[in-house]
Design a protein that fits this description.
217 residues, alpha/beta, Ribose 5-phosphate Isomerase B, Chain: A, 2 domains, two-stranded parallel ribbon
């Protein structure tokens, strides 16, 4: 069966990013239109040459695999909950990309919010999760990374809304304000909820436009 690229596959590609395809790859018309709208370029590569040279996995296949990678990071306040959530992610079939911290020793939350945001914006991870004591600072910091739409969620309703309506790609949590069970439920629902598109797409596009205008100043 020939590789197929659909609009859903482009959700994991950053704005103005690039996606490698082989001569056999089929790109749907809607996917081509979406790629043009978001400035995504298709780069033709030889799958056989690439595999022979390094044994590397073609980038379009890697992109599909990245749909199971969730970047996760926390400061000292969120360290213990991060460790628990990593186990849940593995149980649910995801690959947890742990970007620190590695202990309960005091550190600065912006460093980890930026690391998770970059992993998502670069396409190294499908979605990201950042934890600190209240979740507010990490949300502010992560949203400074171009291409990131970080949402601080505190219950099932906000988790669902942030994905359905806002296409949030980074979730921030207040580890000191949530029980481990509540955090587990929020993360599970957030990961399972797709972006609704439709009228919400126009609004997300306006968010992207604000970012693009600000970058030009």
């Amino acid at each position: 069966m020939k590789p197929l690229i659909t609009v859903a596959d482009l959700e994991r590609v950053p704005q103005n990013g690039e996606l490698a395809i082989t001569d056999e790859t089929i790109v749907t018309l809607l996917a081509r239109e979406e790629a043009e709208r978001r400035g995504i370029a298709f780069r033709a590569v030889s799958a056989h040459a690439q595999e022979a040279a390094s044994g590397a996995v073609p980038e379009e296949i890697s992109a599909k695999k990245s749909s199971r990678i969730v970047a996760i990071g926390a400061d000292h306040g969120g360290f213990e909950l991060k460790q628990q959530l990593k186990g849940h992610l593995r149980d649910w079939g995801y690959v947890a990309l742990d970007l620190g911290t590695d202990s309960a020793e005091a550190v600065d939350y912006p460093d980890f919010a930026e690391a998770v945001g970059n992993a998502v914006a670069r396409g190294e991870a499908w979605l990201g999760i950042v934890l600190d004591g209240a979740g507010i600072g990490s949300s502010i910091a992560a949203n400074k990374v171009p291409g990131v739409r970080a949402a601080l969620c505190y219950d099932r309703a906000t988790a669902r809304n942030s994905r359905e309506h806002n296409d949030a790609n980074v979730l921030t949590l207040g580890a000191k304000l949530l029980s481990p069970e509540a955090a587990r439920e929020i993360v599970a629902l957030w990961l399972a909820t797709p972006f609704a598109g439709g009228r919400h797409q126009r609004r997300v596009d306006k968010i992207r436009a604000i970012e693009e205008r600000s970058a030009k100043r």
